[in-house]
Design goal:
Elements (H helix, E strand, L loop, with lengths): L46 H6 L10 H9 L8 E7 L3 E10 L2 E6 L4 E5 L3 E9 L4
Antiparallel strand pairs: 1-2, 1-5, 2-3, 3-4
Length: 132
């Protein structure tokens, strides 16, 4: 007994005849060596720390190194708010510039003034600014 079907079943999708594609695989690669912990962090901006090859904490830096560190921060980083203690009073704000023995300082309220370096007693970090 032979059965005949007038139409073939419609279960198959007709696929077009495509030519095989050539794909090129990666043959080699280069990887950068990770930096050691001595080369990263705050010590990158401290000249003495680079010469010694070890990392210095902000509190271990001299007063002049601390001010230089805050002035020489990369442009990608936001400014760091600090607490500046002088012989005439205490201020909270940002160190903008250090030139010729004078520190240019900006308070939270936007007031800018210059302080002689020899009148500064200490600098303490508070945190990052919200506007930068």
């Amino acid at each position: 007994m032979k059965q005949s079907v007038p139409n073939e079943p419609l279960l198959y999708i007709v696929q077009p005849n495509l030519e095989p594609k050539v794909s090129y695989m990666q043959q080699s690669f280069q990887a950068k060596k990770p930096r050691s912990s001595q080369q990263t962090g705050i010590a990158e901006w401290g000249e003495d720390a680079e010469k010694q090859g070890k990392q210095k904490q902000f509190q271990e830096m001299t007063l002049e190194e601390q001010i230089q560190f805050l002035v020489k921060l990369p442009n990608q980083m936001s400014r760091i708010k600090c607490h500046l203690v002088t012989r005439k009073g205490e201020y909270k704000g940002f160190i903008l510039e250090y030139r010729n023995g004078h520190v240019k300082f900006q308070t939270d309220r936007g007031n800018k003034f210059t302080i002689p370096f020899n009148q500064i007693d200490s600098v303490t970090l508070i945190g990052f600014s919200k506007d930068a």
